[in-house]
Amino acid sequence: MWYMSLIWTILIGLIVGALAKLIMPKRDPGGVIYTMVLGIGGAFFVGILGHRLGWYGEGEALGFLASFAGAVIVLMLYRLRASRQTA
């Protein structure tokens, strides 16, 4: 049931996106909703990477932590790109 995995990834992405916003408070052009969407992107990227490389399996806590790290990295990259466009 791949769609359940997709739904969980989206939910975890929303949560880690919100947590990334709390960890890195700053006014973003997209606001909280856009930050949560970036969190979903980070969760997808790290989820695919982590599973392919065998770092963790389904339902492991390391997957949540990796998704959080992915969301923070995606948010940092977004802020770097946004600051270069305005400068």
Short synopsis of the structure:
The protein has helices at 2-23, 31-53, 61-86. It is mainly α.
Shape: elongated
Low-confidence stretches: none
**Secondary-structure element string:** HHH
Describe the biggest sheet? none
Q: Kindly provide the radius of gyration, computed on alpha-carbon positions and rounded to a whole number of angstroms.
A: 13 Å
The average pLDDT value, as a whole number, equals 81
Number of domains: 1
What's the β-strand tally? 0
Cα end-to-end separation: 46 Å
Number of distinct helices = 3
Beta-strand content estimate: under 5%
Measured as a percent range, the helix fraction is over 70%
Structural class: mainly alpha
Structural features, described:
With 87 residues, the chain is mainly α. The protein has one domain (2-86). It is built from three helices and no strands. It has helices at 2-23, 31-53, 61-86. Helix 1 (2-23) crosses helix 2, helix 1 crosses helix 3 and helix 2 (31-53) crosses helix 3. The model has no long low-confidence stretch (mean pLDDT 81).
